[in-house]
Amino acid sequence: MPRTPNMRRFTDQMVERLRPPTSGRIELGDEMCPGLLLRVTERGVRSFSVIYKVVGEGGVSATGRLLKGKQRRITLGQWPALQLREARKRAREIVAAALEGRDVRDEQRAQNLLRAANTFEGVAERFIRLHAKPNVKSWRNIERVLKLHVLPHWRERVLKDIRRSDVHQLLDDLTAQGKVGTAREVRKHLSSLFNWAVDREIVTDNPVYGMTRADLRNNHQAGRALEDNELRAIWQAAGELGYPFGKMYQLLILTGQRRNEWAEARRSEINAEKRWLEVARSRYKGDREHIVPLADVAWTIVDALPAWPGNDYCLFSTTDGRKPVSGFSRAKSRLDKRARQILRQITDNPKAELPRYRVHDFRVTCETRLANLGFSQEVRDAVLGHAKPGLQKTYNKHDYLEEKREALGAYARHVLQLTSQTQCQSDMK
Predict the structure, then answer these.
(1) Same domain, yes or no: 178 and 246
(2) % of the chain with per-residue pLDDT over 70
(3) How many separate helices (H) and strands (E) can be counted in the chain?
(4) From CA 88, how far away is CA 408, in angstroms rounded?
(5) Which tens digit of pLDDT belongs to each residue from 132-167?
(6) Domain boundary at 156, 187, 216, which?
(7) Is residue 221 part of a domain?
């Protein structure tokens, strides 16, 4: 077959040294790779493309042979970013696909549409709706963490394009702001999301898997117990904060329960006759029911909570009982600000600072002080709802009921004694 004028044997040196035309552009074909073209403009821009015909698009001959369709072209990229070797590889793959009756352009278009649908925002929405919401009781927390700390940075990012370095940068930014606990939560929920996406074949691997972050190692300590003056200041500040958060914080202090066990409590879970809160199995961490006896001061707080018409409603709400409270971070900031002011009055030190603490530390404080009051580990575990080893699913909600009532009563009197001392000191000043 005679060589045509526009066919050349491409080499790296030829591509580099090829003179551009004085005007317009020239286009050469590669003898070594049918279909591969090199286009050179008068400004010296060199780009590779491939031409091909898809078998079957031209119909079928009288003998039943598939006919090729119209000639198509795909631009591969500019030299030198795209080297000759890679251009030949891509061209051969495209031509081979065309001979099999596949048009790579259609496949690329489908992939682009899929990528557009698989942005982080889109995948996160499906992850919450299809996985977290049906299977995880605290799915709202997962949704909140991703919405606040990940979506603003990755909203339009295609999930496949998010690399390990991107995750590290996100966590670095959080830890630089002192939000180590938040960074732990972000890493945990991102790992779950990517694992789900791998299973759905949205991505091929999880960039969070095996990530080493010494600064985010799990805190194996349960927290810290509040000192007397801290507890006094926080209790009084919660009283001034009022409903809903102030009363909720006081009940958390008095009962040692987890935040959501009061924040999401409903009127139907309160037994007025027996004076206890019965946390429903559907929202309890141990996947079982849990009874919290209410000492006199705790019952006084519960009994005075506002009531709304209807069969059932949330105890702590800013929407007339329709939805439980939210905005915990802002509420705790207000609590801490006022508690710091009270602490300075108690200690007569205008520069005193309230040490950093978590709401979870109310539980630690309760258990620590119950131990100091002489209550056994078994009773303390029952009060806080710690499951017996190996028996989490079969834990009897009535176990240690009287012991829990006695323990929480003693602890409530202890707290009241501390806070009454605070009030006396304030009155003297």
Answers:
(1) no
(2) 88
(3) 17, 8
(4) 77
(5) 988 887 788 899 999 999 999 998 888 888 999 999
(6) 216
(7) no
Q: Is the pLDDT of residue 265 over 60?
A: yes
CA-to-CA distance for 129 and 157, rounded, in angstroms?
20
CA-based radius of gyration for the chain: 34
Q: Are 90 and 136 members of one domain?
A: no
Number of structural domains in the chain: 3
Domain, as residue range, for 63: 7-111
DSSP code for 429: -
Q: Taking the CB of residue 113, how many other CB atoms lie within 10 A of it?
A: 10
Is the preceding omega at residue 355 within 30 degrees of 0, hence cis?
A: no
Residues 395 and 296 in one domain: yes
Closest listed residue to residue 172, CA positions, set 189, 162, 159, 187: 187
Classify residue 394: in a domain, yes or no: yes
Mean pLDDT score of the chain, rounded to an integer? 85
Let me know whether 355 and 244 are in one domain.
Answer: yes
Q: What is the pLDDT of residue 239?
A: 95
Rounded Cα gap, residues 278 and 261, in angstroms:
10
Q: How far apart are CA 400 and CA 422, in angstroms?
A: 33
Q: Six-digit token pair at 332?
A: 């705790």
Q: CATH number for the domain including 322? A: 1.10.443.10
Last residue of a domain, one of 170, 192, 216: 216
- 159 Cβ neighbours under 8 A, 6+ residues apart: 118, 119, 120, 123, 194, 197, 202, 203
